[in-house]
Write a structure and sequence with these properties.
Blueprint lengths: L1 H12 L1 H4 L12 H12 L4 H19 L16 H33 L6 H15 L26 H4 L1 H24 L6 H28 L5 E8 L4 H4 L4 H20 L3 E3 L5 E4 L4 H14 L2 E11 L6 E10 L10 E2 L13 H7 L1 H4 L17 E2 L4 E6 L6 H9 L4 E6 L8 H17 L3 E5 L4 E4 L5 E5 L5 E8 L6 H5 L2 H27 L1
Helix pairs in contact: 1-4, 3-4, 3-8, 4-5, 5-6, 6-8, 6-18, 8-9, 11-12, 15-16
């Protein structure tokens, strides 16, 4: 029964990521898991039991969040039968849930190893959670899509502290509050006099108040801060579905549509910068003089910078073949092409490259054939800041935006404005497209940069350094987004120190673990 309750508790904790207005739930939704772990550890919980308790809770959490895989149906772009489409979606939904659950199950196992005293539980559980979220960024199996701090993007004051220590530490603060609530609940249930419930509850309330209070102060300061000269941007949302994007002859039609919408945007708004979505031209555009010439002519005619999502190819000197990249190519106002081409640094597993290729082609060919690119893409390695007459532009493509360190690298290399080009057409108007846009809000807050986000089928948006959206176009709508953005050389505390909070979490857990070992050794030597 307790495992069923943990699964349901995890599912409940996922609700704020699906419905942002329920952001307040996150401040106490993890408490049941922490309370159960504390009680069971005190009663001699095994390591295996600790792991599976977390596995169950996170199973409910991730299974609820990743329900949007259902929006892939009917997967016509792969030519699958209805039965195979359902099977593929089920494998993706359950498979990604299992991978994330497998990793985050170590949060509760780690907590079991380091927690020896009840009063240390809130802080140590927060530390273990932060390490778990950080670990999700380190391999292709870890996808930091469902970070707990993402649940707060529906209430801007609560995410401003990400500018201090980052979104992972914000997740830790939320978990710390949950831990205090768990202790308070246990004190009431057990009627313990040594640990009073009221001070613990007040401490939890204080954490929320301080976090929100800092957020209100920062929002007010940003609203009154000098901004400099505005840059007028236009985001083009052509609304070409995944089913249509790869159809024969569609590349030329896509180019024509985006050129037409670009001209309309200039007539309506006279932007300085125009951004197209990810791989809106699904071919190596620089290999086509006709396509390249059409965009160059358009940029020269309008006298503005046009940034285009397309593939690029570079000769691999070691292997003697051509590496294909998912890139952003900048056409300057004079029609020239910038030498700085940004290529996506974090590729989507099974969509843009196939990990463990021999294994999946042998045992799960349905996943091996999920991508329709005809081969693996090559990941970019550098931020490649784009220097233009508009300013120094940092670029991100789709999946890049959920990895905070990529944005850090871009800003540290001199990005004054962040361009985010994406294609979320796979998921239509599901929660996935809104969650992905919410990650861009966190990146804006962390780095103190404006973000211009162009999505093929939406959401396209202009985001302030506070995370506030000043212009937006909903999914599955054809149109343009116009707005002013501002260049910035500001360095937030998080840009300076990065994920120091995570390193402190490692130190805290190490001290908790080895202090008990050391105390036991000293006691034994004395005896």
């Amino acid at each position: 029964m307790v495992y069923l309750l943990m699964f349901l508790s995890g599912a409940a904790a996922a609700l704020p990521l699906l419905f942002p207005k329920l952001f307040f739930l996150s401040w106490f939704a993890v408490a049941p898991l922490i309370a159960v772990m504390i009680r069971r550890i005190e009663r001699g919980m095994t390591k295996r039991g600790a792991y599976f308790m977390g596995f169950t809770w996170f199973g409910g959490y991730f299974f609820s969040i990743y329900h949007w895989f259902c929006y892939l149906y009917p997967m016509k772009f792969l030519g699958l039968s209805p039965v195979m489409a359902v099977l593929t979606i089920a494998v993706c939904w359950v498979g990604l849930t299992a991978l994330q659950t497998f990793q985050m199950g170590f949060v509760t196992l780690g907590f079991r190893l380091v927690c020896r005293r009840r009063w240390t539980a809130p802080l140590l559980f927060a530390f273990c959670w932060m390490i778990g979220e950080w670990a999700q960024t380190k391999t292709w199996m870890g996808v930091p899509w469902a970070r707990l701090s993402l649940s707060q993007t529906g209430f801007l004051p609560n995410i401003q502290s990400a500018s201090l220590f980052g979104s992972i530490t914000l997740s830790g603060v939320i978990v710390l509050c949950n831990g205090l609530i768990a202790l308070a609940a246990l004190a009431v249930i057990e009627k313990k006099r040594r640990i009073r419930a009221l001070p613990l509850a007040l401490a939890a309330l204080m954490i929320v108040a301080v976090n929100s209070g800092y957020g209100a102060i920062r929002l007010n300061s940003l609203n009154h801060a000098p901004k400099g000269e505005p840059v007028r941007v236009a985001l083009i949302q052509g609304n070409i579905s995944t089913d249509d994007k790869w159809a024969p002859g569609m590349t030329e039609q896509s180019l024509e549509l985006y050129l037409q919408m670009t001209r309309y945007a200039y007539e309506d708004y006279q932007p300085d910068l125009i951004l197209w979505p990810e791989t809106v031209i699904p071919t190596k555009i620089l290999n086509s003089k006709a396509m390249t010439g059409a965009v160059r002519s358009c940029a020269r005619e309008l006298g503005c910078v046009i940034v285009v999502g397309a593939f690029t190819g570079v000769e691999n000197e070691k292997e003697g073949d051509i590496d294909t990249y998912n890139s952003l190519i900048t056409f300057n106002a004079d029609g020239s092409i910038s030498e700085e081409i940004y290529s996506k640094r974090r590729l989507v597993p099974f969509g843009e490259f196939l990990p463990m290729e021999d294994f999946f082609r042998t045992f799960l060919p349905v996943l091996a054939d999920l991508g329709n690119l005809g081969g693996n893409l090559t990941a970019g390695r550098y931020p490649n800041i784009i220097s233009t007459d508009v300013g120094s532009l940092g670029a991100l493509i789709c999946f890049d935006s959920i990895y905070e360190t990529l944005t850090l690298d871009s800003v540290r290399d001199g990005a004054q404005l962040l361009l985010l080009s994406t294609n979320d057409s796979w998921y239509r108007d599901s929660a996935a497209v809104y969650q992905h846009n919410a990650h861009a809000k966190l990146r804006a807050v962390e780095t103190g940069r404006w973000v211009a986000r162009a999505a093929n089928t939406g959401v396209s948006s202009i985001i302030m350094p506070s995370g506030e959206v000043t212009g937006e176009l909903e999914p599955l709508v054809t149109g343009n987004v116009y707005g002013e953005v501002y260049l910035s050389d500001e360095v937030t505390p998080y840009v300076m120190i990065g994920n120091v909070g995570v390193y402190l979490a490692f130190v805290g857990c190490a001290i908790a673990y080895f202090s008990e070992k050391l105390a036991a050794a000293i006691k034994k030597s004395i005896e």
